Automatic annotation (TrEMBL):
Keywords: Hydrolase, Lipid degradation, Lipid metabolism, Signal. Residues 1-28 form the signal peptide. GO terms for molecular function: hydrolase activity, acting on ester bonds. Belongs to the 'GDSL' lipolytic enzyme family. The keyword Signal applies. This is Uncharacterized protein. Pfam families: Lipase_GDSL. It comes from the Eukaryota. The keyword Transport does not apply. GO terms for biological process: lipid catabolic process.
Length: 398
């Protein structure tokens, strides 16, 4: 082969690489967002689940939401799911709609699915959406609710283990997984299986579950062997992620188990009002094994990427340095009654604090809108202290 021909081949190769790279960059970002989890992420699912114990459809929930309207979120306003949506799509959006809102009078509507995913039924493809931003603007600048592209499957009371989900009669994690598979099947029939897999591959799947498993262990099941208990949780988590991977998911945003032993719910169960060491220790052990699982999965699941959001250590920081964030109360719920305002959940007759941004907790176990924003921003834009191996913003931009 002559030198001239060699140079020509090299030039062609470079051109091909540039074209491929340019194509990849032009398609960077996330066309949709899918969320599975518990009450930290629920945006109204349980309003459609008649038997569910946990519902946030009454005042004072949503007092700082649009039009001060309860939305099914366990928050005074926006929750973790909403701030995740802003990381993915920009400051003007809220969480994708709840999966069960795609049903009307008990009947599933394919048109609602198409609308939720911003699909063009004629062309069978999605339209461009807002790109990720570098930060979050104050909530007050957003004039109205604007659901992001995607679907939220989260249900208050959901646990990793089905038996724990049954305590609150919530949708089990396995139920949410079945719903995702149902959506995938409908998408395949609408736009074709290849395009459905591509949509799933390019869209981040955020999972936040395990809080209730830790709660129930600390409250009711502390006599169980903690190592065996954690192993059963990890086994189920592994199955969930693997199943999502098998239907196309590749980008996983994982929310760790927070430092939940110091919540008002945990404090009120202890005579001295201290934190539950049992809950915090179990949460830490579960997080360690979960992060190890994620690292191992990437070794044999080709193309899988993840971001482990370390909300545990961020919550510790909020407890130990509240003045840094202008938080004045890290012990009591903003809304409730009795000791630590945790003897009841937030309801119309509960005591309501005035300065909600000064409280770490909104009710017995959920962060205030402000605290939720701090937790998400740490994992989204922080360093490896709060997100590993990449942060959530980077994950969304891939």
């Amino acid at each position: 082969m002559t030198t001239s021909n060699t140079v020509t081949l090299i030039n062609i190769s470079v051109i091909i690489l540039i074209v491929i790279s340019s194509s990849s960059l032009s398609n960077a970002g996330s066309p949709a967002l899918f969320i599975l989890g518990d009450s930290l992420l629920d945006v109204g699912t349980n309003n459609f689940v008649l038997q569910a114990v946990g519902k946030a459809k009454y005042p004072h929930y949503g007092i700082d939401f649009f039009n001060s309207t309860p939305s099914g979120r366990f928050s005074n306003g926006l929750n973790v799911a909403d701030f995740i949506a802003r990381v993915v799509f920009g400051d003007s959006v809220t969480s994708p709609p709840a999966y069960l809102s795609l049903f009307h009078s008990g009947k599933y509507s394919e048109k609602r699915l198409v609308k939720a995913l911003d699909l063009s039924p004629r062309r069978g493809r999605w339209r461009r959406w807002r790109r990720p931003t570098t930060g979050s603007n104050p909530v007050s600048l957003v004039p109205r609710e604007n659901p992001a592209v995607g679907i939220n499957f989260a249900s208050s009371g959901t646990a990793i283990l089905d038996v724990n989900s049954a305590v609150d009669q919530a949708l089990a994690l396995s139920d949410q997984l079945s719903q995702v598979i149902f959506v995938y099947g409908n998408l395949s029939a609408t736009i074709g299986s290849w395009k459905a897999q591509l949509l799933f591959a390019k869209s981040p799947f955020f999972l936040g579950v395990g809080n209730n498993d830790v709660h129930f262990f600390a409250l009711f099941r502390a006599k169980l062997d903690p190592d065996k208990y954690i192993d059963s949780l990890i086994e189920t988590y592994n199955y969930t992620l693997t199943t999502l991977y098998n239907i196309g998911a590749r980008k996983f945003g994982i929310i760790s188990i927070p430092y939940i032993g110091c919540s008002p719910l945990m404090r009120v169960t202890i005579v001295g009002g201290n934190c539950s060491k049992t809950a915090n220790d179990l949460a830490q052990q579960l997080n360690d094994k979960l992060e190890n699982l994620l690292g191992n999965m990437t070794l044999y699941l080709k193309g899988m990427v993840y971001s482990f959001g370390n909300t545990y250590d961020k919550l510790v920081d909020l407890y130990e340095n509240p003045e840094r964030y202008n938080i004045k109360n890290v012990r009591d719920a903003c809304c409730g009654l009795g000791r630590f305002n945790a003897m009841t959940n937030c309801h119309p007759l509960a005591v309501l604090c005035k300065n909600r941004d000064e409280y770490l907790f909104w009710d017995v176990s959920h962060p205030s809108q402000y605290a939720a924003q701090l937790l998400v921003e740490a994992a989204a834009y922080g360093d490896s202290t709060y997100a590993r191996p990449i942060n959530w913003s980077k994950l969304a931009s891939l």
